[in-house]
Amino acid sequence: MAGEGGAKLLARRWLVPEEKIRTWVSHYRLHGVDALRPKRSAYSTEFKLQVLSHQDREQLSSRQVAVYDIRNPNQVVVWRRNLDVGGVEALGSMKQGNPSMKPRRRCPVPSSTVNADPEPALPSRAIQS
């Protein structure tokens, strides 16, 4: 933005995809320095519908509707899929935020597999007379 090279030159210098630099510049121009800071937001159903309606009406890509300050254009793709599959209810029913990092046990250990006898059984030997 200061005129010290285009997106292509900066991409090569910093080993960042050129499209990423263009996205950062676009976000900065639209929303200022706050657009470059991490953002954790829960979008309302109404907001999601507004974005998707605008996208349909103007025939825009998910990246183009980023004017709504949506940091991850792929989120719009997820909203579209949810709307198509589950209707408007699917836009509001999704849990917002990051998934829990707490590990979940997939299947509980069945109690029948626990050996009550702490010592393993020894094979019996045939007694010869």
Task: Throw out a few tags for this protein.
129 residues, mainly alpha, 5 helices, 0% strand
Explain what you see.
The protein has five helices and no strands. The protein has 129 residues and is mostly helical. Helix 1 crosses helix 2. The chain is elongated, with a radius of gyration of 28 Å.
List the helices and strands and how they pair.
Blueprint: H1 7-14, H2 18-31, H3 45-58, H4 74-86, H5 88-92
Helix pairs in contact: 1-2
Oligomer designation: single chain
- Give the helix/strand class: mainly alpha
Whole-angstrom Rg: 28 Å
Shape: elongated
| CA distance, first residue to last residue | 98 Å
The overall pLDDT average reads: 74
Number of helical elements:
5
Q: What fraction strand?
A: under 5%
Report the major sheet: none
Uncertain residue ranges: 96-103, 112-125
Helices and strands, in order, run as: HHHHH
Short description:
The protein is an all-alpha fold. It is built from five helices and no strands.
